[in-house]
Amino acid sequence: MVLRSVLPQFPEPDTQPFWDATQKHELRYQVCKACDSVVFYPRSHCTTCTSLDLAWMTSRGVGTIYTFTIVRRNQDPAFVDLVPYVVAWVDLDEKFRMLTHIVDIDPEDPSLEIGARVEVHWLDQGEVSLPAFRIQSSP
Questions:
Q1: Domains in the chain and their CATH numbers?
Q2: Average pLDDT of 59-81?
Q3: Which residues of 16-43 are buried (b: 16+ CB within 10 A; e: fewer)?
């Protein structure tokens, strides 16, 4: 899966640590030191209490499919050759949700279902690696 035209071109200071970590195949998220809330996607403040005191943590990259859709048609040149593909919201075990791709599976496979356990799988795209997920091989 090649997604070069949709890669971040200019990471912002708030997201730079996230993108730096992806190069090492680490899925990073933030936790507020003031109220212990999990913050994802990366930003400069806590979305619960607005504190600026955030710590970076590394996810194990394991979670559950919250919901998904199968994209069977896409006119965008960056995606037209990839159809059909699966886009999903994944609930990570560390209590954050992210929008991602489910890869390495036929979209008609019955193991692709809400509640399925998934694990991170990295799509290396030059200087950036994108976190995607695949159905977990063993719990």
A1: 12-58 (no CATH), 60-139 (2.40.50)
A2: 92
A3: eebbebbeeebbbbbbbeeeebbbbebe
Q: Within 13 Å and on the Cβ side, how many CA atoms surround 135?
A: 14
What share of the chain has pLDDT > 90, as a percent?
Answer: 78
Write out the two tokens for 67: 């919901």
Give the whole-angstrom CA distance, residue 45 versus residue 59. Answer: 19
Q: Which two tokens stand for residue 50?
A: 């607005």
Rounded to whole angstroms, how far apart are CA atoms 28 and 34?
A: 19
In the structure encoding, which two tokens stand for residue 5, read together?
A: 């035209």
Cis geometry, peptide bond prior to residue 131 (ω within 30 degrees of 0):
no
- pLDDT tens digit string along 8-58? 666 788 999 999 999 999 999 999 999 999 999 999 999 999 999 999 999
